[in-house]
UniProtKB/TrEMBL annotation, chain A:
It is a peripheral membrane protein. This is ABC transporter ATP-binding protein. Keywords: ATP-binding, Cell membrane, Ion transport, Iron, Iron transport, Membrane, Nucleotide-binding, Transport. It comes from the Bacteria. One of its GO terms (cellular component) is plasma membrane. One of its GO terms (molecular function) is ATP binding. SMART domains: AAA (SM00382). Belongs to the ABC transporter superfamily. GO terms for biological process: iron ion transport. It is found in: Cell membrane.
Amino acid sequence: MDKAISVKALTIAYGAATAISAVDLDIAKGKVTVLAGPNGCGKSTLLRAIRRLHQPKSGEIRLGDMPISGLKEKELARHIGLLAQSPSAPDDMSVEELVRLGRYPHQTMLQPWSAADADAIQAAMFGTGVSHLAERRLGSLSGGQLQRVWIAMVLAQETDIICLDEPVNHLDMAHQIDCLDLVGRLNREHGRTVVLVLHDLNLAARYADRLVFMKDGSMVADGAPVELMREALIEDVFGISCRVIEDPVHNRPLCIPIRNSSPRFGAAPAA
Amino acid sequence: MPLASSNTSIRVPRRIGRHALFSGLAVLLLILMYLSLAIGYRLYSPAEIWRAVTAFDGSEAHVVIRDLRLPRALMAPLVGAALGIAGVLVQTLSRNRIASPDTLGLNAGAAFAVVMASGLFGVASLPGLSLAAAAGALATSLLVFGLAAAAGGISPLRIVLVGVTFAGLFDSFVNVVLTVNETMLDQLLFWLAGSFADRKLSLALNGLPFVLVGGGIAFYLARSLDILQTDDSTARGLGVPLGVVRGLSFVAVALLSGASVAMAGPVLFVGLVVPHAARALVGLEHRLQIVAAALVGAVYTTLADIVARFVIFPREAPVGAVTAIVGGCLLLLLLRRRAA
């Protein structure tokens, strides 16, 4: 397996609280890796650490052979793109103005705008189907359009690795599929390595080449969706009893949740 | 690695006629600067103005033109440009469109320093008060930035909170001192209201380098400032060193506001209104926003300075009051148009 990123014995703490502890993970080049787990399991922290938004307490992250701690800000931004969770920009910014921001890591004081920048912006907007929205203000877009525009901004960055932190939150079902299909296409047709954080286990199983389960800051399991989507394992990680069947359309495992096995909101009184 | 090729080319600079816009504003500014020399309590012909500059003969007209009119014709646009750029920086830095150098307490800090200098050390001369104002603005910006950055990273919200707190504190101090000491109120009111009148040319020349350096820093940071308009995670993901950019922006704001408050006292509302006008004209890219804000700010204060000579003719109104009244109306107009 060709490694895009390798995480070694990574521990990250917010003050005294440990967010993730001793995580080892290799992220395969050209594959879609999905980090999944219950709320607060550390999946977003791990993703953000890969983009160096958190300083490790111990351990190391390597990009290929280079430790990311040694890279300059812009250099790292030319390798790894990040779509943050619930990103924000002014409502009166135009779509094109936002997508242009993606070129920042490629620009210098002496070479502010090049033909390559214009090409990248054009290709990113075309690839995400937002070219016709170029002059529109962000505040006038629907949630689905807005998410495509943000993905276009990350694409304009032209990085080999793209990290997306819960990109389909707040989107309706059609736009969730639309957005993840787009991400899948970037991976298949353009060979981008994709790392996703997803809440929805069934979407994770459908789009992942490789699934990573996290719980309480540790990595619990990692493998192909068919290996990980087992009833006992899901119950252990997500605290919910379930039935796993095969999705008859995509032939991927599909989880049908049944009952919360570790109630968080108080159990019904025993009979 | 382009995703797909397409023949429709993207117009790299958005919005047409940008050069025409900038040239138009520059021409307007020159006309206003000329009017600032020519009209007021007395009117002077172009020939007379020319002679006063090239062949000074010591006549009353020449003294008025050279010593009274020329300094303010140069200082008004300088202060307007400085406050316009400072306003853009503060609004981007705080991600808050109703923030301005006033919000950060810089003018209040300057006023406080002026009152202290006058009360404790008996400073009465304009150069002395200017120096105190500059020191007060710089000290306040250090204080605000230091406190906003103290607890870990500096956040846009904390900048505004700390700034508003100091603005309120310093304003109250000034009010208390001036209520107790009416003589001082009489002496300082001309300064506290903001004015370009009775300034020496040397004051404008001393302010110029600070405005140039502050404006230069802002222009140098333009690309990073574009990205500062997004959330912190996105900005860092794009490779912007947030701490460095915010720190440098603060230095620029301190230089620009400090220089303008030293030259003219607190000229209110310019730093708030001008960035809105600049964005309406050229969009959100800072490279353009900064140039537009400098030009619009210069036009605005120069015009306000001329208007101030006539609103309560033959006396002069404080220019700070004019910019605040006109600015308030302009802002309401902009908001109404935005809402429509």
